[in-house]
């Protein structure tokens, strides 16, 4: 099997422009509040780092690692916690930061888990969404871009742990040799 970077789905400039807009919107919505960003490792690392540069509110970060894809292009459907948050969520305004909502299974699991910890509020900010693949209906308050039903790489998104550092989002083309 050989692999190559396919068509570009979201250009680097468009990503950065949208992230600035999202940061400004979140700043307005959380004015006067203290925000806890929960980054979902590993994919959300680039997005969270860029987003928080556009937040003008008191803000802390924490991370959770869950994995359902491994080195496959299809979700296994079984979500596992690999690393939990460092601090309790009780009474906190929590914003979950995701790179992509695809089937929605990861986020469904996360929201159930985090809601049970008693946050003051719990919302989601996702850079990318694939609405055509969604198997569960979820409340995503902030969304960057809708992308088609194709396996995407770049800007945090991996295939077998590679390609996360690309500054744009593209498709991955896999061909049998
Ligand atoms: O909506 P879903 O179908 O559940 O897919 C979305 C999730 O899958 C990816 O994570 P992955 O499990 O690949 O871990 P990673 O972030 O470390 O790559 C992505 O970062 C989301 O967290
Ligand atoms: O399209 C994708 N690419 C990489 N990781 C993913 N996790 C869910 N969907 C995707
Ligand atoms: Mg992955």
Automatic annotation (TrEMBL):
Segments forming domain Phosphoribosyltransferase: 13-159
Enzyme Commission no: 2.4.2.8
Record has Transcription regulation as a keyword: no
Cofactor names: Mg(2+)
Cellular compartments annotated: Cytoplasm
Superkingdom assignment: Bacteria
GO molecular-function terms, A-Z: glycosyltransferase activity
InterPro entries, alphabetized: HGPRT (IPR050408), Hxn_phspho_trans (IPR005904), PRTase-like (IPR029057), PRTase_dom (IPR000836)
CDD domains linked to this entry: PRTases_typeI
Record keywords: Cytoplasm, Glycosyltransferase, Magnesium, Metal-binding, Nucleotide-binding, Purine salvage, Transferase
Record field: catalytic activity: IMP + diphosphate = hypoxanthine + 5-phospho-alpha-D-ribose 1-diphosphate; GMP + diphosphate = guanine + 5-phospho-alpha-D-ribose 1-diphosphate
Family, similarity comment: Belongs to the purine/pyrimidine phosphoribosyltransferase family.
Protein name according to UniProt: Hypoxanthine phosphoribosyltransferase
Organism, as annotated: Solirubrobacter deserti
Lineage, top ranks: Bacteria, Bacillati, Actinomycetota, Thermoleophilia, Solirubrobacterales
Encoding gene, per UniProt annotation: hpt
